[in-house]
């Protein structure tokens, strides 16, 4: 057995976990072990999504304005 670990869930997920544990006869540690085992055994892929140009330009303008001093030093 490994050392005990602490897990902190977001509120919505915590409620779902509690409901699942109530409706299924499984211990919390068993659920965590099964979930982690399944997650790490499956290939993880990053899904690229197109960027909304308006949102990108808005964010870029904020970043340039906020970091103007650093950008000037790079020139």
Descriptive key words:
single chain, 75 residues, mainly alpha, 4 helices, 64% helix
Briefly say what this structure is.
The protein is mostly helical.
The pLDDT mean sits at 91
Q: Which consecutive residue ranges, at least 5 long each, have pLDDT under 50?
A: none
Order of helices and strands: HHHH
Helicity level: 55-70%
Query: Count of helical segments?
Result: 4
Ends distance: 57 Å
Shape: elongated
Major beta sheet, specifics? none
Number of strands: 0
Q: Class by helix and strand content? A: mainly alpha
Question: How would you describe what is shown here?
Answer:
With 75 residues, the protein is mainly alpha-helical. Helices cover 64% and strands 0% of the residues. The protein is built from four helices and no strands.
List the helices and strands and how they pair.
Blueprint: H1 11-23, H2 28-41, H3 53-66, H4 68-74
């Amino acid at each position: 057995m490994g050392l005990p670990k602490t897990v902190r869930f977001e509120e919505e997920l915590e409620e779902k976990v509690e409901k699942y544990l109530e409706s299924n006869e499984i211990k919390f540690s068993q659920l965590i072990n099964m979930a982690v085992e399944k997650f790490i055994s499956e290939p993880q892929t990053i899904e690229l999504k197109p960027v909304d140009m308006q949102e990108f330009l808005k964010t870029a303008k904020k970043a340039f304005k906020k970091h103007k001093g650093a950008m000037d030093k790079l020139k």
